[in-house]
Amino acid sequence: MPSDFHEVRFPLDVALRGSGGPVRRTEIVTLASGQEHRNSRWADSRRRYDAGLGIRTLDALHTVLSFFEERRGRLYGFRYRDRVDYRSGPPSQAPAPTDQAIGTGDGANRVFALAKTYGGGPQAYRRAIAKPVAGSVRVAVNGVELAAGAVSCDPATGRLTFAPGAVPPPGATITAGFEFDVPVRFDTDELSIDLAAFTAGEVPRIPLIEIVP
Predict the structure, then answer these.
(1) What is the DSSP string of 9-51?
(2) Greater confidence, 115 or 56?
(3) Is the pLDDT of residue 202 over 70?
């Protein structure tokens, strides 16, 4: 990520009550016969969230306002925890070193990028993971978990770097398990809060959008 990204996480207690998920852009042309031609405009999905649903108290609102000001509105990106999709496997299971296929060794390459694959067929979608949670990454080569010091992970980029003496041999399967955040930014430069509506139960809208690496 460029220098306009802050390696801080959006308030977790608010994020856990937010809403949102992946968005894709598909063009659909309907012919005179009624048949459709469909074309995907984006190669990757992009996530959108509304964090306003997680704000239930004035103190939580104050915390988010402070976070917004520190990020200068849309200027600086930050981390966001998607409670539905924040682990290499299902949310209910702790990451295992064999969760996700990362790459295949060639005996020379020491650097590999984390990724998560959705689906198991020929149309499976592979998503780059750029913001792993520090200390959560576990790596295995041919199913055997590596000891500490054999491989490191940069939490700001999601890149694995193997130590010189632990380079995966040719044909070796590299897998990893991890927790991760979504790189996002505010999708507005203005937060307009109606306190009368808020105390009556109406929550503010706080839109967030994923930053594409």
Answers:
(1) E--HHHHTT-EEEEE--EEEEE-TTS-EEEEES-SS-EEEEEG
(2) 115
(3) no
CA dihedral 34, 40, 46, 49 (to 10 degrees): -10
Query: What is residue 59's three-state secondary structure?
Result: helix
Query: pTM of the prediction?
Result: 0.91
Q: Tens of pLDDT along 117-162?
A: 999 889 999 999 999 999 999 999 999 999 989 999 999 999 999 9
* Residue 128 amino acid letter: A
Position 203 scores a pLDDT of: 67
Q: What's the token pair of residue 67?
A: 């976070």
